[in-house]
Design a protein that fits this description.
30% of the residues lie in helices and 14% in strands. The protein binds zinc ion.
Length: 223
């Protein structure tokens, strides 16, 4: 991270501190539970707590990198995974279909023994962890995004810290395209449609989710 990114982050932290004083509306408990499980468990292996390093696909799902590596290496998927899993994650065929997430730090929560917390470095907010009734983590989680291909994670409003004309990642300062902002665990159907459309466009351009070009050795084969 360059000096510019550091000072931007410092200002952003101050802004977040102010926001924390505001009240947060509470959702229905059951709905909240389902929502929270996506923020605590690997999308592929639902019995595994999310733990660094994390990766994400073009849909903004969260996975443990180890689970995805196992998935990619498994030759006999029919035997190792359920039909539902195979169908749900068939879009992950190679490492280029995922992006490793950056700017996250894992610590042990003070309030809850043995419970890990993953914090987002940019803004120093809770990304994953036990919800403290006094924290606004639930609210914050709704707005986390990452940028492809750098994988830097931040809250969406952090993107507004940079000049819109420049479109530079506030963390690594690399230039990105507006379409390469991936909302994490979004439940907004419109947003999910945008993500599907983005991937369709990338496929037509022979580009993977992580921005790398597909090899065109056998154009008939397709994907
Ligand atoms: Zn970045």
């Amino acid at each position: 991270m360059g000096a510019d990114g550091g000072s931007v982050n410092k200002n952003y932290n101050l802004k977040l501190q102010i926001q924390k004083d505001k009240d947060v509306p509470k959702d229905d408990d059951t709905k909240e539970y389902i929502k929270q499980s996506r923020w605590n468990y690997c999308a592929l292996k639902s019995n595994e707590f999310l733990t660094l390093p994390l990766v994400s696909d073009y849909r903004g799902n969260l996975y443990n990198k180890t689970s995805i590596l196992e998935w990619l290496l498994e030759k006999d998927k029919q035997k190792a995974y359920s039909a539902q899993q195979i169908d749900k994650f068939k879009h992950i065929k190679r490492l280029n279909d995922i992006v490793q997430l950056n700017g996250l730090t894992e610590t042990v929560s003070d309030e809850n023994e043995n419970r890990r917390v993953i914090k987002c470095d940019f803004g120093d907010d809770v990304f994953i962890g036990t919800l403290n009734p006094n924290s606004n983590a639930t609210n914050a989680q709704k707005n986390f995004v990452y940028i492809s291909p750098c994988g830097d994670v931040m809250q969406r409003n952090a993107l507004g810290l940079m000049k819109k004309s420049e479109r530079k990642c506030p963390s690594c300062l690399n230039v990105y395209k507006s379409t390469d902002i991936i909302p994490i665990n979004s439940e907004d159907p419109q947003m999910l449609k945008v993500l599907e459309d983005r991937m369709t466009t990338l496929k037509k351009q022979n580009i993977y989710h992580n921005g790398k070009a597909r090899k065109l050795a056998d154009p008939k084969k397709g994907s």
